[in-house]
Amino acid sequence: MARWNERGRKDVLLLHDLGEHLGYYEELGTFLAANGWRVTAAELRGHGKSGGQKGHVNRWRRYLEDLQAIIGTIGRPLAIVGHGMGGLVALWSLRHPLSPSIKCLLTTNPLLGLFHPPPVLTRKFGQLVSSLYPSLRIANQMKAIHLCRDDEFRQRYNQDDLIGRTITVRWSTEMLQAVQEVHQHAPQYTTPLHLILSGKGQLCAVERARSFATEYGHPVDVTVHESCFHSVFQEPERREIFEQTTRWLDSHFEGDLP
What we know:
Blueprint: E1 2-4, E2 10-15, H1 26-34, E3 37-41, H2 61-74, E4 78-83, H3 85-93, E5 102-108, H4 120-132, E6 137-139, H5 144-147, H6 151-159, E7 166-168, H7 169-184, E8 193-198, H8 206-215, E9 220-225, H9 238-251
Parallel strand pairs: 2-3, 2-4, 4-5, 5-8, 8-9
Antiparallel strand pairs: 1-3, 6-7
Helix pairs in contact: 2-3, 3-7, 4-7
């Protein structure tokens, strides 16, 4: 776990994407800290230097347990910024009681559907394999060329030994089930939500995120950065997106500080 600005009066938790680790959030964390936030970032199980089998969970609920343990160290109401898988983990977890409470959620390209969804027969076969060989490993499709337009980022990502490049079949089936459940429960959500989406993303389905926003039980702010790939916090426009993130988060803490 990492933390920036222990004296900050507002709390935000950063939740990473599939295969990532904390190193990809240092710039964002520093920016938010400089704007008065106490920032916490932690690696979910199976990612970075955390415990657990790489790219694997037996049940998606394990991420809820991770999230509750992390926010327990924060100790007061907070905001969450979740990217990709981190957005799915946050949304799925919001269906359950969390303490401290989550005041608002900003998620960038949340995993609410795949850009190339598996055919029905492939999904059914995956469920069968998941029940028989849950630890069977497959590529996770997180390719640097689809993440960011910056060549320096791509080189760093490709050479990073901490990046997870595979998932288990069980992780895949649990993820698909979690996505389905989040969409089914969309009208029941009341937490303020901001979706930041990419016009050129080729990993998470933007149209599925838009559909989710129309069904969500609370007005949703949606922003699309047309030129961006998936990892918006790494893109050349990231400072603009950092500022946008800070303004939106601030708006949900105004007049609510000691």
